[in-house]
Amino acid sequence: MNYFPLEHDEYAMRMNARAGVVPLIEVDHEEYEAELALKSQILESAYRYYFQCSPEAEGMAWESVGLLLQDMAQTYPDDFELTVRGKQWTWTNRLLGETVEFTRGEPASLPLPPLDWLARQVQEDLILMEEMSDGKMVCVAGHLCFGASWCLDDKIGKSFLDIHDEVPEFRERIGQPSDLMMRRLKPGRPTGRFNWSIAATSQLNLAPAIAHEWQTSRHGITATNAGERCFLRVERQTLSRLPLTRGILFTIHTYLTPIAEVAANRDRLRRLVSVLKGIPAVTLEYKGMTGYIEPLMIYLDSAEV
Q: Cβ atoms within 10 A of the Cβ of 279, count?
């Protein structure tokens, strides 16, 4: 498994933010081509539902192109190459077998809108936040193909705190510190964190519009099959301040690991059981786990023996 995000034996809502996270983009080579192909398929089904970027956010999109392409070329030089001659950029993606020449700042020089094109180079979902004159961070654009029960239609135009109103205890416990952390971000000093849940499906796209497809996976989970039917869903998130527009680029890379694989490690199993036993009922309901938490716990308890 790529990440095990539980650092404590008890459940508590924490920011878990760490400064200086690198790289911004991670390439999971085993899943890269398949996940990018899945993004294209999802976008074909309902383009505007999964991608929105107003003309006012285009400057942030171009800054994001520059930031992430350089990050990828530096981190994975065998996979990606970026050549810059003034405004003329050449991007080579060896994993996809593509080379694209474009003029930075000119949308017509790319085959797709800049944020859409960029998001099809990475496995991450990408969200853009703009800092308004009153200091609020507002969601203004996004490319969200692998969202966990949320969508752009519900978040575009909302402030950071309003976006998280549905999360139990978020505003009361870590809302203001999280908002302050975002507003204090400085260019060149990105912050990272992990978010996690347990899903009853290996499907990456859990958009509300197709809930009828993935919610049925919550049925039929038993103490016998929970290890294979349930997955630890981990989001590796990064936040970067864009120096020119002062916007914030938010990246989300989602990883899925079968619970049976998590349970194979005794220390991780013990911690997972301890944390799950302390999650409030309202949080279990929010995470959609209420219907299968009981058989899951029986499975985990038996795995501990």
A: 17
Integer Cα distance of 22 and 30 in angstroms: 20
Q: How far apart are CA 112 and CA 202, in angstroms?
A: 29
Query: Can you tell me whether residue 89 is helix, strand or coil?
Result: strand
Cis, bond preceding 23 (omega within 30 deg of 0)? yes
Does residue 14 sit in helix, strand or coil? coil
CA dist 36 and 123 (Å) reads: 6
Could you tell me the two tokens for 128? 């853009």
Q: Which two tokens stand for residue 130?
A: 């703009």
At residue 303, what are phi and psi to the nearest 5 degrees?
-70, -25
Quote the CA–CA distance of 41 and 243 in Å, as a whole number: 33
Bridge partner list, 194: 236
How far apart are alpha carbons 95 and 103 in whole angstroms? Answer: 22
- Quick: pLDDT tens for 176-220: 999 999 999 999 999 999 999 999 999 999 999 999 999 999 999
Cβ burial of 7 (10 Å; 0-12, 13-18, 19+) is exposed
Q: Please answer whether residues 177 and 218 qualify as being in contact, where contact means their C-beta atoms are separated by less than 8 angstroms.
A: no
Nearest CA to 199 among 144, 152, 147? 147
User: What are the beta bridge partners of residue 254?
Assistant: 235
pLDDT digits (tens, 9 = 90+) for 64-77: 999 999 999 999 99
CB atoms within 10 A of CB 27: 18
